[in-house]
Amino acid sequence: MALSVPAIMKTTAARLSALYLLLFALCAVLLVFYMTSLSARMLTAQTQETINDEVLGLARAYQRGGLPVLVRVVEQRSRQPGANLYLIADANGQILTGNVQSLEPGVLETEGWTNSPFSYQRFGEGELERQRNLPADQGTTQSEQSDAQAQGEKGHNAIALVLRLPNQMIMLVGRDLGEPERFRAVIRRALMLALGMMGLGGLLIWFFVGRAALKRIDSVSEASRRIMGGDLSGRLPVTGAGDEFDRLSENLNAMLARIATLNEGLKQVSDNIAHDLKTPLTRLRNRAEATLSGKHKTTDYRQALEGTIAESDQLIKTFNAILMISRLEAGYSSENTSRVDLAEAVRDVVELYEPVAEEAGVSLQTDVREAAFVNGNRELIGQALSNIVDNAIKYSTDANAQPAVRVAVERAGTDVRLSVVDNGHGIPDDGDRARATERFVRLEKSRSQPGSGLGLSLAKAVMTFHNGRLDLLPGNPGLSVVMSFPSREDHG
């Protein structure tokens, strides 16, 4: 996606790159200027120390032989390569000897260190300048002019110590500042090079890192547009880098998967209500129409009304189960959770269903050795367990041996497992066991039994609400339904 410069600068990656570049440049400028100033001060201090040493040596020469010896020493030292600046002038400032031809006005008027660097011209540079300005036909060749131009320097700066001798003559000892100035020039070039490299580095960082981030954001935006267009199966891209983009995409994908699950559940509820509840409603209407179609006794009308009420109660239970499942799958329950003893819940449910089991000829047994505490809702757990036990009693009556149902509580690692095992025909097929927990699903062998096909669906929703798991396993013979709860035992 091509972006203009203003659009690029609105992106976070470009702004961060510009901010880091500005920060690096500011730090580099401050550091370079600090180092330059520190180095200049050090060079100046070193220069002053050198000048002081020179002045002490000249003072000793003056003490040995007076002005003639001082002049000879100054002339000797001023002719040496790389010599300091030496100058002896009369009381009026007229230069008598040394290697300085001219000075900036006012330098010799103040005794002591010069307040600031001053300009000067070395002895003989005036002649070089004059030769450089002469035309070629006035005694100098082009080669001589070039040599003179190469040798001539103009605009030197220096610092110096000005002293008045006892005879009121003036002595100046100084040092050229060309070396510190060259050092500052090197630092300036290094600064420009560093800034250029940082600018290039910032552009490279933006190009390789910023553009990659922009591409990932564009891909996320494109996937988001598809999802907003109605394609809930779409997911945000995950590169596997493990960075913040991947973490954000993974969280959003989990949210989209949850939304898709809820939408699918809503669709299933709508379809199931339209198909599976149509039969009992039709049966109610036919019963009422048959009752009104002819002349019947009062007892016939009473029986028809009682049957209608019973059928209506069953429909209300079915609707309540559907609403409970949907609410639990959405992760919401108006009921509070607390510390629940599964062993006690098992004893209550078994006690409730013992008459039903005895009437059906089923042996209802328990295997509970100790208390097992979990964090949950006692009513929901009891309802789910009641549905499972009711199913086990109904479907164990066709067992070849004595029908039996066993309810057990045991620990398995960090989980607490509540299992209901019967010895009926069970569900041999793995696919059927997976489908048995879906809403309104009734397998072929169960259609002869009364029910709506919501018992295991409600139990699965209850386990999802408790962050647990519902497993349907072969009982060899029969079926084993296992409710696995995460342990939340409180020993306090």
UniProtKB/TrEMBL annotation:
Main location: membrane
Source species: Mesorhizobium calcicola
Domain HAMP, chain residue ranges per copy: 211-264
Stretches assigned to the Histidine kinase domain: 272-489
The reaction(s) this protein catalyses: ATP + protein L-histidine = ADP + protein N-phospho-L-histidine
Location of this chain's protein in the cell: Membrane
Lineage of the species this protein comes from: Bacteria, Pseudomonadati, Pseudomonadota, Alphaproteobacteria, Hyphomicrobiales
Keyword hit for Phosphoprotein: yes
Protein known as: histidine kinase
Keywords: ATP-binding, Kinase, Membrane, Nucleotide-binding, Phosphoprotein, Transferase, Transmembrane, Transmembrane helix, Two-component regulatory system
An example Gene Ontology molecular-function term: ATP binding
EC number: 2.7.13.3
